C-alpha cells in the first residue's frame, strides 16, 4: 500500500486540527487523482471532480463515525462524483458540453506511460484503457489499484455498492473488454500493418470508441494477418502488480491551509486546494458544515488566486441539532454505504435503492424519465433496437432487443450496435402472439445477431425453459451443434399462485434453468398474473410481499446478472401490475420495487 495518513491523523483532522487536515488531503490526493484520472481518461473535468471530492470530504469529515473506514469512505465519494460527472456530461446541452474534451498534456494514459515508465505489454494495457466503455473505465480505475496493491476488494465492493459476487462478475466482464481492447491496440500498431485493416479503418476518425473496438476486434478474429495479436497476452493482474500510483501533476499538487479560531464555540476552517489544470475560471465555493460539533466554513479557490479577506469568511453559530441533508444538483444519487451514513435530526423519505441488476420494461407514458430515475433502476428496455421514443435519464443503461424474424435487418442491427454492448434476442418466439418463430428460423437468423459482436442473450421463451424437449432446449442444442454463441439465458415468468409460495416457485424456476444450461441469467419479464382465471391480479399486499421476496432472492444469486419487473407504467390496462402512475407517483408495488436492490 502507498504511504497514506494513519487513523490518528484522520481522528485529528475530524476534530479540526489544521496540520492533520493538511496531511490528510496531501496524502490522499494521489489516490483520488488516479481513480478520477483513469475513470475520466484525461478529460478536462478531472481537476474539477478531484476538487469536488476533496471538498465533500472536508465538508462531511465531522460526520465520519469510523475513522478506520476513512479510505473506503473516500473511495466511495470519489466513485459517486465520477458517476455524477458522467450524468451531467450526458445531460448537458450540446452547446455547453463537447464530447471528449481533453486538456492537452493532461491525457491520463500518456501521464501513466510517461511517469511510470511503462513499456511492452504494460504500455499496451495502458493504451487499451482508452477503448473501454465509461462504466468499465470507472471499474478499471478501482481494479487497477487493487491489482497494484493500493485498494482491497472489500473497498471496491463498498465503493461500487454491489455485492461481492456482483462485483466479481462486473470485474470479469471489464477484464474481457480490456483484453479485447489490448488486441485492438496491438493490431493497429502492428508493423507491417495489415492491408485489410487499413482499408477497414479508412472511415475511422482515430478516436477510440465501442463501435470501432468491436469492428476491429471482429476483423482480428477472422484475419490471418491480425489473428496472432490474440496470442501471448500476459494476464493484466501480473502486468499491474506492484505499480505505484500515478504522481499527480505539479499543477494539481495543491496545498491545504487551515485556520481555526474559536468564536462562540464555532470553528473557522479555510482549506486552500490548488487546482489549475483547467483553464476554466474557478469560482470560490463557500459551504457550511459541522466539524467536531462546531460550524465550519470551507472555501476552495484556485492556487493562483489571492486568498479572500478574513471578513469574507463568516462563522455560523453552532446549530442546536444537525440539519437534515437536502439534495442538490451535485449530490451523489447512489446509496451511501451504511458504515458512513450521517444521522439527520428528522427522518427523511426513503430513497430508491439503486442496483445494476434491477431493471424495468417500459413503454411511453407521461413521466417516464422521472419514474426511471426515481425507481433506482440500473437498466431498462422497450423490446426495440433503440430508445428513440423512450429516452431514459443519464446513468440508466438502455439494452436493445431484436424482437422477431422481421427485425433481423442491417438497419435494426446497426441501431442496436449504437446503443451499447449487450443485445437481447427474440421475444417469446414460442408464442403465436409474440415473435412466433420456429427453432429452425431462430437458428438461421442467429448468426446475424452474433455478427454484431455484442454480448448476446438467448431468445426469451414465455415458459418451459427448464423442460426437456422444450423450445429453448432445442434452440440451445442447435446453437451448440452449429457453434453459435449464446452468452446468457433470458427468461420470462408469470405466476398465477398469489400466495406466499409464489417467491419459491419463481426462484425455483430460475435456479432450474441455471442448472440446466450453466449460463448467467437475465429475467427480462416477471410478475404475478393469472391469464386464465380469477382473480387475474394479486392484492397490493400480495404483490408487495412477492416483490420483496423475489428481488431479495435475485440480488443474492450471483449468476443472476439482471432482472426486470413487468412493467414500469401503471396506466390504463397496466394499472393493476405496473409500478408508476406518473413520474413521481409510485404504486404500492412501485414503492416496494424502488426499495429493492
TrEMBL record:
Listed Pro residues bias regions: 309-321
A Gene Ontology BP annotation from the UniProt entry: DNA-templated transcription initiation
A GO molecular function held by the record: sigma factor activity
Positions of the RNA polymerase sigma-70 region domain: 24-90
Family annotation (SUPFAM superfamilies): (Trans)glycosidases (SSF51445), Sigma2 domain of RNA polymerase sigma factors (SSF88946)
Biased composition (Low complexity): 322-353
Alphabetical list of InterPro entries matching this protein: ASL1 (IPR053183), Asl1_glyco_hydro_catalytic (IPR024655), GH (IPR017853), RNA_pol_sigma-70_dom (IPR014284), RNA_pol_sigma70_ECF_CS (IPR000838), RNA_pol_sigma70_r2 (IPR007627), RNA_pol_sigma_r2 (IPR013325)
Residues covered by region (Disordered): 309-354
Family statement drawn from the similarity comment of this UniProt entry: Belongs to the sigma-70 factor family. ECF subfamily.
PANTHER family associated with the record: ALKALI-SENSITIVE LINKAGE PROTEIN 1
Name the record gives this protein: RNA polymerase sigma factor
Organism annotation: Paractinoplanes rishiriensis
Amino acid at each position: 500500500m502507498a504511504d497514506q495518513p494513519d487513523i490518528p491523523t484522520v481522528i485529528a483532522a475530524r476534530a479540526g486540527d489544521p496540520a492533520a487536515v493538511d496531511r490528510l488531503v496531501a496524502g490522499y490526493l494521489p489516490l483520488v487523482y488516479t481513480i478520477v484520472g483513469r475513470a475520466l481518461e484525461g478529460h478536462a473535468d478531472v481537476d474539477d471532480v478531484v476538487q469536488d471530492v476533496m471538498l465533500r470530504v472536508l465538508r462531511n469529515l465531522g460526520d465520519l463515525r469510523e475513522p478506520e473506514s476513512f479510505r473506503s469512505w473516500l473511495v466511495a465519494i470519489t466513485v459517486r462524483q465520477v458517476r455524477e460527472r458522467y450524468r451531467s456530461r450526458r445531460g448537458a446541452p450540446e452547446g455547453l458540453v463537447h464530447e471528449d474534451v481533453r486538456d492537452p498534456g493532461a491525457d491520463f494514459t500518456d501521464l501513466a506511460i510517461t511517469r511510470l515508465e511503462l513499456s511492452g505489454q504494460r504500455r499496451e494495457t495502458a493504451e487499451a484503457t482508452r477503448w473501454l466503455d465509461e462504466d468499465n473505465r470507472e471499474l478499471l480505475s478501482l481494479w487497477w489499484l487493487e491489482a497494484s496493491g493500493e485498494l482491497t476488494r472489500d473497498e471496491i465492493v463498498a465503493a461500487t455498492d454491489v455485492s461481492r459476487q456482483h462485483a466479481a462478475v462486473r470485474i470479469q466482464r471489464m477484464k474481457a473488454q480490456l483484453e479485447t481492447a489490448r488486441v485492438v491496440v496491438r493490431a493497429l500498431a502492428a508493423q507491417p500493418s495489415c492491408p485489410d485493416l487499413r482499408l477497414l479503418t479508412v472511415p475511422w476518425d482515430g478516436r477510440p470508441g465501442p463501435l470501432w473496438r468491436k469492428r476491429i476486434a471482429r476483423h482480428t478474429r477472422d484475419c490471418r494477418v491480425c489473428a496472432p495479436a490474440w496470442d501471448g497476452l500476459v494476464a493484466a493482474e501480473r502486468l499491474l502488480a506492484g505499480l505505484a500510483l500515478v504522481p499527480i501533476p505539479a499543477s494539481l499538487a495543491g496545498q491545504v491551509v487551515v485556520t481555526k479560531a474559536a468564536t462562540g464555540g464555532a470553528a473557522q476552517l479555510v482549506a486552500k486546494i490548488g487546482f489549475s489544470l483547467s483553464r476554466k475560471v474557478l469560482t470560490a465555493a463557500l459551504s457550511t458544515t459541522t466539524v467536531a460539533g462546531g460550524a465550519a466554513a470551507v472555501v476552495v479557490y484556485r492556487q493562483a488566486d489571492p486568498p479572500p479577506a478574513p471578513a469574507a469568511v463568516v462563522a455560523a453559530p453552532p446549530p442546536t441539532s444537525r440539519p437534515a441533508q437536502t439534495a442538490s444538483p451535485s449530490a451523489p444519487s447512489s446509496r451511501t454505504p451504511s458504515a458512513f451514513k450521517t444521522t439527520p435530526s428528522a427522518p427523511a423519505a426513503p430513497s430508491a435503492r439503486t442496483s445494476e441488476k434491477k431493471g424495468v420494461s417500459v413503454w411511453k407514458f407521461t413521466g417516464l424519465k422521472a419514474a426511471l430515475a426515481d425507481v433506482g433502476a440500473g437498466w431498462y428496455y422497450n423490446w426495440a433496437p433503440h430508445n428513440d421514443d423512450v429516452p431514459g435519464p443519464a446513468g440508466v443503461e438502455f439494452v436493445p432487443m431484436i424482437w422477431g424474424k422481421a427485425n433481423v435487418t442491417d438497419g435494426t442491427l446497426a441501431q442496436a450496435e449504437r446503443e451499447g454492448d449487450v443485445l437481447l434476442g427474440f421475444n417469446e418466439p414460442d408464442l403465436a402472439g409474440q415473435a412466433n418463430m420456429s427453432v429452425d428460423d431462430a437458428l438461421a437468423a442467429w448468426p446475424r445477431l452474433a455478427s454484431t459482436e455484442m454480448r448476446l442473450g438467448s431468445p426469451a421463451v414465455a415458459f418451459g425453459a427448464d423442460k426437456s424437449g422444450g423450445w429453448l432446449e432445442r434452440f440451445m442444442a442447435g446453437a451448440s451443434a452449429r457453434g453459435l454463441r449464446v452468452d446468457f439465458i433470458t427468461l420470462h415468468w408469470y405466476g398465477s399462485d398469489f400466495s406466499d409460495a409464489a417467491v419459491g416457485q419463481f426462484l425455483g424456476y430460475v435456479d432450474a434453468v441455471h442448472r440446466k444450461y450453466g449460463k448467467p441469467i437475465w429475467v427480462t419479464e416477471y410478475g404475478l398474473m393469472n391469464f386464465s382465471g380469477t382473480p387475474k391480479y394479486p392484492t397490493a399486499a400480495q404483490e408487495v410481499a412477492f416483490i420483496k421476496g423475489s428481488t431479495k432472492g435475485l440480488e443474492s444469486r450471483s449468476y443472476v446478472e439482471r432482472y426486470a419487473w413487468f412493467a414500469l407504467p401503471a396506466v390504463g390496462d397496466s394499472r393493476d401490475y405496473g409500478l408508476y402512475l406518473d413520474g413521481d407517483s409510485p404504486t404500492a408495488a412501485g414503492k416496494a420495487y424502488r426499495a429493492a436492490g
